[in-house]
């Protein structure tokens, strides 16, 4: 009989494909201690080190005695994992020698992290000899990795080095496998591999890039663009992560490939460029706003158009908006409000957490006054932001020393 110990994506121990862990509120601390021993298996551990890592907030006057009691209970639990007539040294045994504790693993205790690391090392040895053999070994290794090491223990500092190590090893192996598939020009395999990997590492830019590049190579240009839009939204809006230059430039590669492989068709190009009928103002990020701002400013100089830059400043947001669950909800509410408060063709962006920039085109007469009244009315009607916390300023686009 063998014990299979799973640590990637969570913690479990199975015998005959059945979990032998009996989880309860009483076993939580014991299993945390167990996970600690597994992380530092076959290493000598001082009692003081274990106590410092696991029970820094303990109020016990005799923490060493608490540790001894916990280890005794843990030994009793481990003994229930296999029949009594079997030798515990072939499985898991916690020993105390010369003032040190040590969890020793026997030949019948199979740890997924050891299997994973051994397979990666085997694949590395095969990589320069036999590409097909290396691919098979790397695939087997990656299938073992189910997620972050002991992910159910999210906030333990002692876990960070081991967790980072195995995550880096997973990504390193993944990219080696992608390179091997690239040598074979097997883009379908890369796509399948990347899609599977993104379930575990959704914010890893290089996986997204490899996926899109392979999509383009087999002519799935629309899928590549759709995935780019998805990934940008995931990184920027959900995680507030600014994509790298390499990632942003991947869109240029996709578009250049489309141009190179397609005949020029103005109707098709126009269709791809068209956002569809706009129902209100357009929201964009600050970089796009700067670009459009400078284009419109040059047009205004040439045609003497009546364009304005407006700044909305919100004050006292911390105290006045506690009804909002989070900042992303506030942002979404403001975007919707401004889209129907402004005119079609007006453009706005968030300058910072408390200020919004608006570019208004061809505003004549008392147009700025009408726009301000409409914004204030809608703010009062649809938000709990007080009028005294709302400041709106306008400045002609052609004035010197504007913000942008």
From TrEMBL:
Keywords: DNA-binding
Classification of source organism: Bacteria, Bacillati, Bacillota, Tissierellia, Sedimentibacter
Residue stretches making up the Bacterial transcriptional activator domain: 111-255
Top-level lineage group: Bacteria
Keyword presence, DNA-binding: yes
GO MF annotation: an example: DNA binding
Protein name (Swiss-Prot/TrEMBL): DNA-binding SARP family transcriptional activator
Gene3D superfamilies: Tetratricopeptide repeat domain (1.25.40.10), Winged helix-like DNA-binding domain superfamily/Winged helix DNA-binding domain (1.10.10.10)
Pfam families linked to this entry: BTAD
Keyword Protein transport: no
């Amino acid at each position: 009989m063998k014990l299979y110990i799973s640590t990637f994506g969570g913690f479990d121990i199975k015998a005959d494909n059945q979990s032998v862990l009996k989880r309860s509120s009483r076993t939580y601390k014991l299993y945390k201690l167990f996970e600690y021993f597994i992380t530092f298996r076959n290493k000598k551990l001082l009692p003081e080190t274990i106590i410092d890592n696991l029970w820094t907030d303990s109020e016990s006057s005799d923490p060493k005695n608490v540790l001894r009691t916990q280890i005794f209970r843990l030994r009793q639990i481990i003994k229930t994992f296999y029949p009594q007539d079997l030798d515990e040294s072939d499985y898991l045994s916690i020993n105390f020698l010369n003032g040190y504790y040590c969890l020793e693993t026997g030949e019948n205790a199979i740890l997924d992290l050891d299997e994973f690391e051994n397979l990666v090392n085997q694949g590395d040895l095969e990589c320069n000899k036999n590409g097909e053999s290396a691919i098979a070994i790397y695939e087997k290794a990656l299938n073992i990795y189910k997620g972050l090491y002991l992910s159910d223990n999210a906030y333990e500092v002692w876990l960070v080095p081991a967790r980072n190590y195995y995550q880096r090893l997973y990504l390193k192996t993944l990219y080696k496998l992608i390179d091997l598939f690239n040598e074979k020009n097997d883009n379908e395999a890369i796509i399948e591999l990347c899609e599977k990997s993104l379930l575990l590492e959704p914010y890893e830019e290089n996986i997204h890039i490899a996926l899109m590049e392979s999509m383009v190579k087999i002519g799935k240009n629309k899928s590549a663009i759709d995935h780019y839009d998805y990934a940008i939204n995931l990184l920027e809006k959900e995680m507030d992560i600014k994509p790298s230059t390499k990632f942003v430039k991947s869109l240029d590669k996709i578009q250049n490939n489309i141009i190179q492989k397609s005949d020029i068709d103005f109707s098709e190009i126009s269709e791809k460029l068209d956002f569809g009928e706009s129902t209100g103002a357009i929201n964009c990020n600050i970089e796009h706003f700067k670009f459009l701002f400078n284009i419109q400013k040059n047009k205004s100089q040439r045609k003497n158009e009546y364009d304005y830059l407006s700044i909305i400043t919100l004050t006292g947001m911390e105290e006045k908006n506690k009804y909002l669950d989070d900042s992303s909800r506030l942002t979404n509410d403001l975007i919707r409000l401004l889209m129907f408060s402004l005119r079609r063709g007006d453009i706005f962006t968030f300058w910072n957490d408390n200020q919004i920039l608006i570019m208004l085109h061809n505003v004549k007469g008392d147009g700025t006054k009408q726009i301000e009244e409409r914004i204030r009315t809608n703010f009062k009607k649809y938000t709990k932001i007080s009028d005294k916390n709302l400041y709106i300023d306008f400045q002609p686009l052609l004035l010197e020393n504007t913000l942008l």
